[in-house]
Amino acid sequence: MKHLSRFFFTLLLPFALAGCAGGSSSLASGVTPSSSGTYYAMDTVIGIQVGENSAGLTSDAIGAVFSTYDALADNTAHRDGVVNVYDLNHTNSPLFLNQELFDLLQYSAGMKTITSGYFNPLIGGLSDLWKKDLFNIDSSGKSLTSSGETFSPSVPNESEIQTELSKMGSSSLVFDAASLSVQRLGEGKIDLGGIAKGYAGERAHQLLVKGGVKNFLINAGASTVVLGENAKGSNGNFGVDFAGVKGKYVLMKNVCIGTSGVDQQSAMVDGKLYSHVINPVSGSALVDWYGVVLAGQDAGLLDAFTTTFMLMGPDLAEPLRQKYSLSAMFYKADVSSLVNEGFALYDS
Amino acid sequence: MTAKAFFRKYLWDLIVVGTLTVVSSGFAIYLAIPKNSDEHTANVTRDSTALLSIDLSLESDSPRQIVIQGVMTPMTLEVKKNAIRVSESGCRNQYCVYAGWVSDSNHPIVCAYNHVSIQIGAASGLIHMGTGA
After folding, report:
1. Hey, what CATH class is A83-191 in?
2. Which residue in A has a C-alpha nearest to residue B47's C-alpha?
3. Whose CB among A273, A288, B2, B37 lies 3.0–4.6 Å from B122's, allowing a Cys bridge?
């Protein structure tokens, strides 16, 4: 018996030593171990890594934040058990919302003011019009082109654009904070596609920061990234590169990064390039700047500002960039057009 | 106790400990060594589970089709020399189909509807930011 117990002890010892060598030291009680996972929300893949912490936060908990806002911001279908944007778009009566959607809508309405109308949460009708003609996607977000079929993009005529601009301009959202109700006045259709992902990312960001989590990464569809410190990186930095800024990368930590661009959602009509980024002021989807990268401390702000800055261009956007202490890159078809304000770029 | 007596008494213990130490150390070293990045390998995953790993450098210039099952619908992939694409998918937006042929690690194809990702090559350590909404 003595030999047997000694045998098992010696058998297990190397594994225990190997475990220590691998760095997975045992956790104190009350410490939640690091976790990671891939989640699907808002038509995109969201990669989440959460380092060990004392706040009980896991990647699943952060993923749940995105799932919540996925349901709330959905304007293509009603979701059971919750009032969402789809419901708001189908009535002009006040609806009682949960705190999360109420806050998101108020934040979006505030963005319209901040950006002088270059971001507008009531752009849904105009957006549907362009998506139908450029990409053959209907108002429920469904492609009407069968696989293997070729679709020829077109541009809406001016009267259609003016009709949608008029609907948007004559519509508004009325907020009642006491009852958490929102009333949509007019025919303008709410579309939070340009802000919901970043806003959810910022809510998740706040959870992680308040929870004292040091090491984390949220990569929401490669257009919204929220960075803590990289446990494996030099000085805690993450390396990040960008599809539109070839051959360069940045090293950053404790920051949010947002991007918007045209390379995956654009169409050429009569020699002109159009994209999914639609100007709520002019009604046009014509491309000038191909993409924008922004870095700052509020992922929701960045999500709204990336599309806004693309439409404004570097000169018009400069006061907003300075006011919110953002780093910004603007680019066109090639890297020689790059306008860089505040990013330290390295050659890759 | 003399050294000779010690080794005689604990011979088998030392053999077991030594063997397991060598095996576990070797395993740890194997895990720690960065694997070679292969820019020609397309890794197809569904819900983080590997479905396929295709060496695109071995494909011919004529595309061949591979049908995989996404979470919601089947998807048809086409592979040819150093390139891969989604030729058919039952997803509503068809972004994965519109992505077309891809040949490098900077352009992963994602079908969020089917929870399928296609990534060429090994991760470089950089976070690749694309162009979203």
Report:
1. mainly alpha
2. A38
3. B37
Q: What DSSP letter does each residue of A226-293 carry, written as one string?
A: EE---TTSGGGPEEEEETTEEEEEEEE-SEEEEEEESTTSEEEETTEEEES---TTT---B-SS-EEE
- Does residue B55 belong to any structural domain of this protein? yes
Q: Read off the DSSP letter of residue B102.
A: B
What is the tens place of the pLDDT at every residue in A251-279? 999 999 999 988 767 889 999 999 989 99
Which value does ipTM take for this structure? Answer: 0.76
Within 10 angstroms of residue A207's Cβ, the number of other Cβ atoms is 17
Nearest to A223 among B24, B112, B129 (CB): B129
Task: Place A244 in a pLDDT band, splitting at 50, 70 and 90.
Answer: confident
Contacts of B76 in chain A (CB under 8 A): 147
Q: Residue B26's domain spans which residues? A: 1-33
Whether B20 and chain A come into contact, CB under 8 Å, resolves to: yes
Structure tokens at A275: 């994209």
Q: Do residues B6 and B58 share a domain?
A: no
Q: Per residue in A141-168, pLDDT tens?
A: 777 877 667 788 999 999 999 999 999 9
Interface check B49 vs A, CB under 8 A: no
Residue A79 has pLDDT above 60, yes or no: yes
Measured CA to CA, the distance from residue B33 to residue B19 in angstroms comes to: 21
Pair B74, B11 in one domain = no
